[in-house]
Design brief:
The chain is mostly helical and 135 residues long. The protein is built from seven helices and no strands. The protein is rod-shaped. The chain starts with 6 loop residues before the first helix and ends with a helix.
Amino acid sequence: MEKTIHQGRNVKRFREMLGIKQDALAIDMGDDWNQQKISLLEQKENIDDKLLQQIAGYLKVPVDAIRNFDEEAAVNIISTNYDNAIGYQKNEHCNFNPLDKFVEAMEENKKLYERLLQSEKEKVELLQKVLDGKK
């Protein structure tokens, strides 16, 4: 079953993505166009090729983009590729125990504090010797 592309809806999508109001597009299209006529155009499933080319020119998008854009397919492509997107990584196979890493870090901190304490004791002993020597 072949899915039909709603060209009018695609015109509306591109117009909205570009931030163009129906009134502004109507002004670009000429004197016999108004907001209501653009609204009716966007409800049409198929648009005449000549008119579609004119609209594509004003929107500055390829005619084929309006003819072939399928939102469902675009959403499907995005959702399928989301897992492979740059900056998005899954870590399904953790090859270490996070608790072990935490314990290792705590042990290293303990060793650092012991060395710091020993260094302070040595400073105190050195200062005590200097004070005893001055008496």
